[in-house]
């Protein structure tokens, strides 16, 4: 609301009055019980003044340093020895093996190969033997000193006369045939509800070939001597290595001999070759301390194992049969005397 003041006439009218300069302020009294708010005081913002740099601003560039008069240090050229560059090694690249059955190169690859018919047949027959026979194994050890002395004494003359070496295998085949004639039950076989006895000895000799294990049969061994056995084993081995074995060469057999000693085997339990009832496992010959006449001596010893079908062969016959082989090998004179 504006207030107007009446000015007097004359000189007083030219002078402004206080009421004209300052407006009238009406005082407002707050109601009872209400506390008036204090007036808000605002301060003007401070002016931002930059901080002056220390020292005066240079007007001329700094002086250029003097150039060096010579190198700080020097090495004579003749004192520097030339270094030979080392040839870089050729990068090795691993390739999968050409034949996975003969090598492992670490390339982490796999190859699936169909099992050949021979391996399938071997696997089937071995599994059938486990499922059919009540297999039990008995062990013994043989002192090879005397048979080794026999080979050393007459081996050269034997080879010179007959053109073939005298080996340990013929001695074991002859000893097995001798023991089978003494224990015919080991040479027998179960067929259904019957026991079939044979009055002949056909020994299957296990031979390892690149395609697998084959067991050609040496027939009528009971009537053979060392020379006949050596010739028969050599002929069968040559046919097996050349792949010329026929089915007739492996058919039949009343007993099997497996010689794992040629690969350095110390001990093992062979599996029966069906439909036979027993198998002899030969192993490596190693010098071992043994007791002889109250003294400890070093002798060439071999462990032998006989696995047999316990349905047909009792422990007495099996142990007697194995001890018969042991006696014939340790002292071949028992064969001549029929002991």
- Radius of gyration, in angstroms, nearest whole number: 56 Å
Q: In terms of per-residue confidence, which ranges show pLDDT below 50 for 5 or more consecutive residues?
A: 16-21
- What is the H-and-E element order? HHEHHEEEEEEHHEEEHH
Globular, elongated, flat, extended or rod-shaped: what is the shape?
elongated
Write a concise keyword list for the protein shown above.
about 350 residues; alpha+beta; six-stranded mixed sheet; 8 helices; 10 strands; about 30% helix
Please explain how this structure is put together:
The longest helix is centred in the middle third of the chain and has 18 residues, at 145-162. The protein is built from eight helices and ten strands. It is an alpha+beta fold. It has a six-stranded mixed β-sheet with strand order 1-10-9-8-4-7. The protein is elongated. Strand 9 (278-292) and strand 10 form a beta hairpin. Mean pLDDT is 82; it is low at 16-21. It has helices spanning 18-21, 117-132, 145-162, 168-182, 226-242, 247-250, 315-330, 333-337; strands at 135-143, 189-191, 194-196, 203-205, 207-209, 212-214, 217-218, 255-259, 278-292, 295-309. Helix 4 packs across helix 5 and helix 4 (168-182) packs across helix 7 (315-330).
